[in-house]
Amino acid sequence: MTASAAKFKVVVVGGGPAGSAAARTLAAAGVAVCLIDKSAFPRDKLCGGLLTLRSQKTFRQVFQTDWSPVIQQQSRGAQFYFQQRLLNSLTDYKDIFFTCRREFDAHLLGLAEQSGAKLLLDRQVQGVDLENSRLSLADGETIDFDLLIGADGVNSAVARAVFGSSFHRNKIGFGFELEVPISSASPAIPNPEIYFGVLDWGYGWVFPKRDTLTAGVGGLLRASPNMRGDFEAFLKARFGRIPPGQIKGHFIPFGDFRRVPGRGNVLLCGDAAGLVEPITGEGIAFAMLSGFYAAESAKEAIMSGREKTALALYQARYAGIAGTFRQANRLRRVLFPKMGQYLLAKALPKSESLARRQMDLMADELNYRDYGRFLLAKAVTGPMKVLLGR
């Protein structure tokens, strides 16, 4: 590319699942699309790496291929704890998959490139000129666009250019993670472990991978000001010590999604739009789906010769995701306060159906409204059974 301004119909900033989904969809439709990312790939990405049946369904819809090359572990159940006390365990129920984001994201990016997307990797976006629809890169190159898709994560430079900030400090989540050697756990862990009661407005996890266990905690940052200390206490309780390795932290969207995912000719998707669901912590499925929706909307607007309609078209598709997140946000006000976690700890040991409904939720086989109704019924019938001596 020369030093003069290059021009693309659509520029995607960010090479994670949302950006790759958008770039792949547009390129496959013959739209001139360029994807820019500040990193060279493969690159490390802090993430538990859990992939649900929802993720699998979305991956197949968007990339139209099999993801087995980047799946490190598969299980069909989960264990639920309150602090270190086992509450309930499911086996042979719903499929859950685990990946390493270093491998997963590079694979998706490769699929986008195979479809014809132009990749500019290891290239930092330095400025976003919305008035002139132009990006400036750190090396001095400029790139013009008709439509811009911001998929550049929770610290999105595109979101900052559009809204003045990438997220609201009082509403953001945070997470700490550590890759733990498999030898630190005996016996081996075949299924994911979910821990309640280790954070205020959050939870912990241990996920099995091919070579390591991913241990982490995540929750609302302002509710857990000593989250690093809480994580270290969790590690000591779970493994008997803090295992060797580097503890890493990162911001996580925590239900504070963009009600309008963009402005003008700019569309936001994935973490840049705040799309990490606050009950299960799922983000990859919603990243891929929102990237796909943004691309489909951009494609439709371009094909009709009315690029200015892209955001309205995207908003209509995005409404389904927004509805899911509104329901999840209402539900978290019940589940995450200390009293909610205490009641959950009381109910889970006595109810396999409660654990199963949680897995159904992650599999996209149960919506949040019906899950909330189920929890309400449990909350009503549980005390009645105690009163009746059952």
Structure report:
- This protein is of the alpha/beta class.
- It folds into three domains: 6-73 and 97-168 and 257-330, FAD/NAD(P)-binding domain (3-Layer(bba) Sandwich), CATH 3.50.50; 173-252, D-Amino Acid Oxidase, subunit A, domain 2 (D-Amino Acid Oxidase, Chain A, domain 2, 2-Layer Sandwich), CATH 3.30.9; 337-388.
- The chain is built from ten helices and 18 strands.
- The chain has helices at 17-28, 53-63, 101-114, 157-163, 227-239, 284-303, 310-335, 338-347, 352-362, 368-388, and strands at residues 6-13, 33-37, 50-51, 73-75, 78-82, 85-90, 96-98, 118-121, 125-129, 134-137, 142-150, 173-181, 193-196, 202-208, 212-220, 248-252, 262-263, 266-268.
- The strands form three sheets. Strands 1, 2, 8, 9, 10, 11, 17 and 18 form an eight-stranded mixed beta sheet that branches. A seven-stranded mixed beta sheet has the order 6-5-13-14-15-12-16, sandwiched between helices. Strands 3-7-4 form a three-stranded antiparallel beta sheet.
- A hairpin with a 2-residue loop joins strand 5 and strand 6 (85-90).
- Helix 2 (53-63) packs parallel to helix 6 (284-303).
- The radius of gyration is 21 Å and the shape is globular.
- The model is unreliable at 383-390 (pLDDT under 50).
